[in-house]
Structures are given as C-alpha cells and as structure tokens.
C-alpha cells in the first residue's frame, strides 16, 4: 500500500528495519512512496559497489531500470553526476536534458520524461548512492518536493547500512549484500515473464505488487518464485 504522507512512508521503513531486513523490498517501497508524494513518474537508485563501480539497487519500473543501467554502461547521466558531486541536481526540459547528457539524455526524453531530479544517498560524509527521479511534466518542483526527495534518499541510505558504526569495508559489504537481493529479484522477474507470457515491464509490476497482497518481503517472494521454477515438473 502506498503511504498517504511522508510520515507514514518513513514509519513503514522504520518498521521494516526492526523486522526481517529485506533491503531491496524496503527500498522499493520507499521509491514508490517518494514517487507518489513528489509526483515522479519513475525512480531508481544507483549505489557504489565498493570497487569503484556502480550498480542498480532498485527501480520502480522496467524503463527506469533500463535508464539507470544505461548510465552505468556509459558512466554518464544525472545519477552519475550526483554520485560524483554529492549534490542534488535538477534539470527541466527535454532540450536541456539532451544538451547536458547526449545519448543518455535522448533516451530519457524518448521514454517520455521531461524533468530530472537527483538526490545523493549520504552516510557520514560519504556519498554511497544516488536517487534518480524522472518526471513527465516540466512544472518545476517546489522546495517542499525537493527537500522531501532528499529526505527519502537519506532514509534509503539508513535502510542500506542500518547502523551508526559502519566502517568503509562494512559499507561495501552491506551494499553488496543488498545487491544480491537485486539479483534475486531480476531472476524472479524473468521467471514471471516466461510463466505468464508477459514482457519484463509487466513482470516487474506483477512482482512488486505481491508483497502488498501477501505481507511477505519482496526478496522472500522472489526467492520462492525462483525455487519453484527450479523444481522438476
């Protein structure tokens, strides 16, 4: 269920952290809430993998995931810039987006997005990731939406690391553990697409809807889907 307000969204994230810790599921829920409360049509998070590389942690749609992966492949784009500078970034208009990021900008515009806003995931002075929000309108975000986006990014960082005393090595370990959950979800998405003869975007939506219907974590459901697919029939 999408949160009605920011307080409910953050309370849901806090509740998730005191139970079985499903990082990707909790992050995905945060992104969906952020989109609903700020007007973003799609969102994604890239994180440092601890080896000078970037990885996709979560996205609210298949399109957003593809745009994030494209940024990783080319080492350019809005999320890459925010990870480099540690600052929020806000660009409005397809022409401006294309002018700034070239082929990545063209892909963003072709997907129907006309405004980009990114926020860094910060932890004790380090930038561990970036939250990328894609908007379909050119109406500028107000200050409250900009602050709220950063608040969601900050909470996402806490969800990933979930501790006050985390060294550099453990930061990398925790991010890599979270990324393992992402791999499971990608595999489950492929199973659902084949099972139901649907495309990957529809499979992604179907998988993301399951925790709301069952009360289980996203990673638990994805693991079960893969396990069932591996059994002889």
TrEMBL record:
**Which InterPro entries has this protein been placed in?**
ANTAR, CheY-like_superfamily, GAF, GAF-like_dom_sf, GAF_ANTAR, WH-like_DNA-bd_sf
Question: What are the alphabetically sorted keywords of the record?
Answer: Kinase, Transcription, Transcription regulation, Transferase
A single Gene Ontology molecular function, please? Answer: kinase activity
Taking the record's annotation, the residue ranges forming a coiled coil are: none
Q: Which residues form the ANTAR domain?
A: 165-226
Query: Its domain of life?
Result: Bacteria
Q: Does the keyword Transcription regulation apply?
A: yes
Do you know which PROSITE patterns this protein is assigned to?
ANTAR
Instruction: Note the SUPFAM superfamilies from the entry.
Output: CheY-like, GAF domain-like
What's the name of the protein? ANTAR domain-containing protein
**Which species?**
Kribbella capetownensis
């Amino acid at each position: 269920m999408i949160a009605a307000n920011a307080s409910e969204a953050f309370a849901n994230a806090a509740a998730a952290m005191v139970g079985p810790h499903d990082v990707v599921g909790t992050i995905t829920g945060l992104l969906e809430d952020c989109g609903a409360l700020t007007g973003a049509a799609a969102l994604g998070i890239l994180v440092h993998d601890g080896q000078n590389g970037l990885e996709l942690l979560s996205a609210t749609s298949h399109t957003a995931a593809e745009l994030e992966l494209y940024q990783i492949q080319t080492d350019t784009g809005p999320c890459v810039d925010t990870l480099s500078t540690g600052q929020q970034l806000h660009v409005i208009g397809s022409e401006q987006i294309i002018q700034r990021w070239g082929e990545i900008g063209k892909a963003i515009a072709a997907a129907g997005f006309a405004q980009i806003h990114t926020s860094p995931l910060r932890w004790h002075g380090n930038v561990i990731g970036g939250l990328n929000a894609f908007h379909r309108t050119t109406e500028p975000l107000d200050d409250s939406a900009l602050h709220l986006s950063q608040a969601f990014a900050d909470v996402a960082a806490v969800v990933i690391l979930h501790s006050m005393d985390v060294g550099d090595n453990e930061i990398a370990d925790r991010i890599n553990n979270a990324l393992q959950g992402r791999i499971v979800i990608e595999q489950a998405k492929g199973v659902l697409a084949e099972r139901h003869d649907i495309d990957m975007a529809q499979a992604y939506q179907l998988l993301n809807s399951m925790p709301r219907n069952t009360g289980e974590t996203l990673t638990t459901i994805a693991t079960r889907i893969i396990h069932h697919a591996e059994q002889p029939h």
